[in-house]
Amino acid sequence: MPILYDKEHKLFHLQAADTSYIIQIFETGHLAHLYWGKRINKLSFNNFPITAVTNFKSTDPILPIDVVPQEFPSFGAGDFRTPAYQVQLENGSTVTDLLYVSHKIYKGKPSLDNLPSTYVENDDEADTLEITLEDKLTGLNVILLYTAYRELNVITRAAKLINLGKEKLKLLSALSMSVDFNDYNYDLLQLSGCWCRERHIFKRALVPGVQSIESKRGMSSHTQNPFIALLDKDVTETHGTVYGFNLIYSGNFLAQVEVDPNYLTRILMGINPFDFSWLLDVNESFQTPEVVMVYSDCGLGNMSRTYHNLYRKRLCRGNYRDKLRPILVNNWEATYFNFNADKIKSIANTAKELGIELFVLDDGWFGKRNSDNCSLGDWIVDKNKLPDGLESLVKSINDNGTKFGLWFEPEMVSPDSDLYRAHPDWCIHVPNRKPAQGKFQRNQLVLDLTREEVCNYIIDAVSNILKSAPISYVKWDMNRAISDVGSESLPAERQRETSHRYVLGLYKVMDKITSAFPNVLFESCASGGGRFDGGILYYMPQTWTSDDTDAVERLKIQYGTSIVYPAITMGAHVSASPNHQLGRETKLSTRADAAMAGNFGYELDLTKFTDEEKSIVKQQVEKYKEIRHITQFGDFYRLRNPFESNEAAWIFVSKDKKEAFASYFKVLAKPFTLPSRLVLEGLNPDYTYEVIGSDMTFGGDELMYIGLDTTELKGDFTSITWRLKAI
Ligand code: DGJ
């Protein structure tokens, strides 16, 4: 049984594949964290390294709690580090102390109340431990939920706080997990950026004190992804110990590392306590989101592949989870708001000619939407642009053999819209205060998804359109962060619940719509990658990675995103040159090679291609059709880091190692370079591989130890790819 309970030592030993995670109940009833790392098969209890600081034993009746590594620490009873939760009693005090009450161990993995989470399809895939803790004085109970996956180095955690006392409790913070390490000799890795520069990799050494990343934007955000990792000092892609933490949540979050005066390191992750509180009536409970914790003892690459395997199969859901994703063309950068039915049909017809499978009509098809200053919320087809309506347009595109997809931004309302005029109170706002408006708010307000009638309006409006025509794909956009947070439907003492209630409302809406239309492929978007997180991926299995479609910028954005999220979740399109965001000129081949590392598509006016370009695009489309089963379902190895060099490279390898697709990019040309070889990974050293399209063959060992020559690649922004097949 991969979760063991040793009664004598009051010790829980969770085993996930090659990982052990050990917790002990101390004599005092506190829950201490003893170990997380490489799997231990023979556990003796002699000399267990509890803490470097004080030589106390778990059986000591008095505990120096401030120096004990813990599992879900409280505040106010002697531990001065940041706690995992804090509650305020009716008398105003905030001191609580959680002690062990009981536990349960069972096969499988439960789902979380109204929140997305990783799952199992068969109870033999994972084991779950529930530990109940209690603060005797208040009756606050906390159930800590741990699931260990049997085949992956993954442990998931979440907590449920229940008020079993006699008075109301106010949660001031309710994080999902806490884990304490016995030293601080780590680097902290984070994925940070902004609009058009999402998920760049940053690394810093831990120092005493608090270091954290967070979102206060009502969305997981472009600024910080809800992910951190602790890395041993010598970590590379292939070597060293890594601990990854990813929150399955789409709203305000906090990921904090605190190095205390004794050099113990505490990791906390969960809903951001900033501007948050939650009133817990008697017998009510509060479920925190899940944190997916991955351990790797062989580098970052292995950690990423663990996340990729888990998310592809046990986070993403629906009919498209295991299906090859279609090649699409989106008209946004081709036309912006300026299109009519003929233009759309001509792009779609050209798409068909080039082998592209899906046409996506982006923003501008509804209300009077000729710019971004009106009509959001009025989901009625604009007959000026599409006089014969949507059904006729979709039918004509379908009849020509291309599928049809449609853009929505369901969470928003324009002040200039019939919806806003009818329901001015339906947006997130603070009464009598003029909401922030400007470039970053894009002339729009956010609908108040804490309200049931608003959620129902969105569900009906989107469903009606989806029922009105054979639509195969939806792009679900969200183009502003949430400011002026307040809801008219909540009482004063619950106003700080608005942000989390918004996320719960969003999940409910997404759940209803995606389950009602199981054959529609949903791709999320938030001004590009502003909500690229596990919470949204649970409902929509792919995300538009960034509004920056420049191939060179995409090298970093996609490389950074791949730290956690698999390529099958990343939308990546070939756009026009010069690029609309940067003005940079790149070759069509480089743009396609970069986009083939994600869900491939085009985002430009196909009708403007010359015949020569069309024939190149046709070949690109054919090539992607031949490799997409490898890139979408194979293993991903990062080979050259664009953040550390003038190059980027990676390889996708099929699960049976018989096929692979490798890509190498040179950003700027340099004179007098030494011969350069790209050493591959993930292949079978005993196989012989042919390079498709050439007469060359190589041994797998040769490719992984000697590598492929890239010296001849000349010019700026150039790339080369190899398709390998075992013979
Ligand atoms: C932001 C998205 O990221 C773009 O791709 C496009 O859909 C626009 N919104 C449309 O307003």
TrEMBL record:
Residues in Glycosyl hydrolase family 36 N-terminal domain copies: 29-280
Molecular-function annotations in GO: alpha-galactosidase activity
Annotated Gene3D superfamilies: Aldolase class I, alpha-galactosidase from lactobacil brevis, Golgi alpha-mannosidase II
CDD domains: GH36
Protein's GO biological process: carbohydrate catabolic process
SUPFAM superfamilies recorded: (Trans)glycosidases (SSF51445)
The keyword Hydrolase appears for this protein: yes
Domain of life: Bacteria
Pfam families in the record: Glyco_hydro_36C, Glyco_hydro_36N, Melibiase
UniProt cross-references to InterPro entries, sorted A to Z: Aldolase_TIM, Alpga-gal_N_sf, Alpha-glycosidase_related, GH, Glyco_hydro_27/36_CS, Glyco_hydro_36, Glyco_hydro_36_C, Glyco_hydro_36_N
Record: residues binding substrate: W195, D362, D363, R442, K475, W476, D477, M478, N479, C525, D547
Domain Glycosyl hydrolase family 36 C-terminal: 647-724
Catalytic activity: Hydrolysis of terminal, non-reducing alpha-D-galactose residues in alpha-D-galactosides, including galactose oligosaccharides, galactomannans and galactolipids
The family this protein is said to belong to: Belongs to the glycosyl hydrolase.
Protein's recorded name: Alpha-galactosidase
Source organism: Clostridium oryzae
Name of the gene this protein is made from: rafA_2
